[in-house]
Amino acid sequence: MAYRNGTYIAFHADGNNQPGKTDIDYYNLMKAWTAKSDDDFTMINSHEKTAAVRDTSKVATLRARLFDRLKNSKNMVLIIGETTKNARVWVPFEIEQAVDLYGIPIIAAYTGYTSILAPADLRSLWPPALAQRIDNKTAHVIHIPFKKAPLLDAIPRFDHNNYPNGGGLGHYSREAQESWGLR
Considering only CA atoms, which of 169, 162, 142 is closest in space to residue 78? Predict the structure, then answer.
């Protein structure tokens, strides 16, 4: 049986790795927050629990590593930016496996937002795999802005044994978001 203590982070790289051009920058920011010893942001990164894969790896190798990482994860942070909805291969696969196979909740972290009180209004940003699972009520999702404080609260709070309230449209209250200095 897998020891499910990691956080799986999914993002759309949009076919490139140019700084400032993809959601990988937000993934790298989360890794930097975790690496700082003078900070209270911590997470166990599921991507660091298995052997690294490269862009040139075979599809079968990539899939196997992703299965291993998801199997050992308690939740998934899905970084949602402007291009995430366009992902056609890996992000949909990661969402499908996280929800359908491993039953882990998704922390949908939106770049460019400071407050999220009506997640359904952001539907145009969702990858179809996420929209389908929210619609059919199989996904357990908390929608948050990509900010340190809500991530710091959501990552240890929600896991495969403790889903967010609200089904696929969970979000923090206005008061909680204001307590983090978000408006």
Answer: 142
Is pTM beyond 0.70 here?
A: yes
Q: Over the stretch 116-172, which tens digit does the pLDDT of each residue have?
A: 999 999 999 999 999 999 999 999 999 999 999 999 999 999 999 999 999 999 999
Report all structural domains of the chain as residue ranges with CATH numbers, in order of start: 26-179 (3.40.50.11200)
Is the CB of residue 30 less than 8 Å from the CB of residue 9? Answer: yes
Q: What's 34's DSSP letter?
A: H
Distance between CA atoms of residues 65 and 5, nearest Å: 16
- Give the Å distances, CA to CA, from 28 to 20, 75, 135, 173: 11, 18, 31, 28
| CA 57 from centroid of its chain's CA atoms | 23
